[in-house]
Amino acid sequence: MDWPKAKTTLIIGFLLLDLYLAYLLFFVPGSQALPTSLEVSGFYKLREVTNHYNYSLMSEPVPMDTSPLPVLEANVKLFSQQQLDEIVLKWLGELVAGEGLANGSTAYSVRERFLYLGQDGALRYEDRALALTPMELSREQALKLFNTFAQTYINPEELQAYQQTLIVQQEDGSWLLEFNRQLYGAPVFADKLRAEVADGRIRRFETRLGLATKGSWLAARSRLVTADRAVLRFLAQQGKPRESTVEIIDVRLGYDFANADKQELIPVWRVMINQPGEDYIVPAGVRYWRSGGP
After folding, report:
1. Cis preceding linkage at 68, omega within 30
2. For the chain, N or C: smaller number of CB within 10 Å?
């Protein structure tokens, strides 16, 4: 094989692909006639592009057709130290001293169980105990464990407001489940119950306590870009293909915080890959793209 020629061919191929991505990301969003629907043929073309970057797009985005959504007000409750202590006691069974972290949250631990709490209500729980007997779980068993756990630690009245958004089995056999509060038919990603279930227990759980998402408008409904724009921007951020294939397990339209002050919720596309903590958020409003993109 002529390696120098093959290398040149690969370089030219990826250069052309980058130019194509740049066209889709910067020229097309600035046009006057932005599409509001991703056709099935467009989805298959998108899968071809993701394959070039060693990402496997597992399923169609939700939704394929976009409708205008408003910008909403968010009201994040700040917890006192006494309230945080009550949460620690409920989740860990003991009131233990916490350790402040660089991100502003506080870490608590009892044996192999860890709880990370922020004054803004952000909560992450981890059970790091080694499984004595690895256990294969069915979808129904994982869902039952999730429901039992959530009913134990979350206010039952609050639980009724959450709807199932995602349940998928990961590469290691564990199950990833997510329930979200819904507004205007879209899940609120900032207001979620997300769990990783494995070996007959909840291995990780994440939520946000005290977030009021009542749906008050801050801005009128605006048009949204389709899911393919978000996925292409995600790929452009990666810069080069991955060494091994990674699954994109979910591409979904919903709401998330506009910025760090957490005062408003904007429509976004979320690209989730099959690796812990790997969520990529892209503003979905056309105005963000016409002003230079997110």
Report:
1. no
2. N
Does position 135 have pLDDT exceeding 90, yes or no?
Answer: no
pTM of the model: 0.84
pLDDT tens column, 26-73: 444 444 456 788 999 999 999 999 999 999 998 999 999 999 999 999
